[in-house]
Amino acid sequence: MAANLLDALNGLVTPDLLATVAPRLGESESAIGKGLAATFPTILAGLVQKSGDPKTMDQIMGLLTTSRVNYPAVLANPKSVLPGDSSGASLGDLGGSFLSALFGQQLGPLAAALSQSAGIKTSSASSLLNAAVPLVMALLAGRVRTEGLGASGLGSLLSRQRDSIFNAVPAGLANVLGLGALRGVTPPRAPRSAAALGSSMWIWAAAVGVLLLGGLLYRNAQLPDVKVPAVEAPQVAKNAVRGAGDAARGAADAAGAAAKGAADTASQAVASLGAFLPRRLPSSVELTLPERGVETQIITFIDDPTKQAEPAVWFSFDRLVFETGSATLKPASQEQLRNTAEILKAYPTVRLKIGGYTDNTGNPEANIQLSQARATTVMNELIRLGVAPDRLAAEGYGEQYPVGDNSTEEGRAQNRRIAMRVTQK
Question: Are 406 and 359 in contact (CB under 8 A)?
Fold first, then answer.
């Protein structure tokens, strides 16, 4: 087994592997090779960054040591983790959890940067990340098990190869990870002795004292005698406190009104979905779904043999909520995500594309990145909930394809959405 992790991973990329992956993603073999060469160090760099976080490393170790990671079989046949293979399906949710633990909401921007770096579609970049992570996991699981490594041992292994990993990450992805200032940086030297440090501090203190004294003498010699009027500090303080209190009360009133307005709007939106009724899936799982909600719509579409998978037919999620300006889902979104995952499990031949959209406010490029990040987050959540990665794709469209009038707040709210399209029934 190669000592250098990157060398070992790159050694898994054979012409046969490239010839298999490229047509599945609709990309050239050279572009896929370039993409994998960027993906491997990016995943390892994310792990290096998390190596000092005990909670994340415990999660990573749990994923690596599960019996589901059959590392000898994966390393002997890397194609086994590709979409469509049973081994790949079994590792899919583990890989999604692995990526989420390392990158979280950075996954969308990373996919966009990988797309630019390798010259492939953003959806292909997301698929490549999901396809590469089981190979990384298999390699690390092998090292963990054969060398008896714990979380600290794995961290030490990564730390020893830190520079080669960081320097192999392409510039665009390095910027997303914040590695720009860290690549090629020599670790800091050991601190000097206390005596030497104390001596140098005394010298610096003396020098600063001389400079301050000189500055004071210069000021007294150059500045005219200016009389500064006295200020009634107690009264100023009273006025400041009174003003702060008024401002705080005003802000609280405004926040309360805004919260009430948001709650009323949310209640109206849920009410418009109709009654929540039980619905039994072909898998015998029973869900409670709104009669006009997107889950009911997608089931009806799948069950109708006259309805074909078409590029123009999209279904907008109606209960997904993100943190403002970010790709972080709020907890209230989990119910609809769980429902969607159960529906996909009940219809195992169905494949979906997740689309992210924004209104036309702000920078168009930033809107593309945000919409991609949000679509990828939803896709990764579905993977975490047990949907095979090869059944999903994600793409951000930014302010393209509006469904509402961007000149009104109501229309802009309609345009800020996540939708799904059935690509295969």
Answer: yes
